[in-house]
Amino acid sequence: MKNPGMGQRQSDWLGIPLCHHHHVGSMGIDTGMGGAVGVIQWEWMFGTQIGHLLWVDDQLKYDIFEMAMVPRPPEKLRNA
């Protein structure tokens, strides 16, 4: 599976579990902070999306990147 382009759907295996507040609430990556600038601000405040995804992968007994059939991102992208 190749990485999707803009407007295409990513694998469900690569979804980041977020609470309502951080997904669509006032501090939400999708609505509360608004648009592309909101995503940059959200990542600055809470860590990168890929860093969160790497953390989630560490908590599971299977590799979500393997399940999604995409290469594992480099560890240097992990949130500090």
Characterise this structure.
40% of the residues lie in helices and 0% in strands. It has 80 residues and is mainly alpha-helical. The protein has a domain at 19-70. The termini are far apart. It has helices spanning 20-23, 35-46, 49-59, 64-68. The protein has four helices and no strands.
Secondary structure elements and pairings:
Elements: H1 20-23, H2 35-46, H3 49-59, H4 64-68
Helical element count?
A: 4
Count of DSSP strands: 0
Spans of at least 5 consecutive residues whose pLDDT stays below 50 are: none
| Helix-residue proportion | 40-55%
Order of helices and strands: HHHH
The helix-and-strand class reads: mainly alpha
Q: Main beta sheet, described?
A: none
Give average pLDDT, whole number.
83
Rg calc: 13 Å
Outline, from the CA principal axes?
globular
**Quaternary organisation of the protein chains:** single chain
The proportion of strand residues reads: under 5%
Distance between the termini: 29 Å
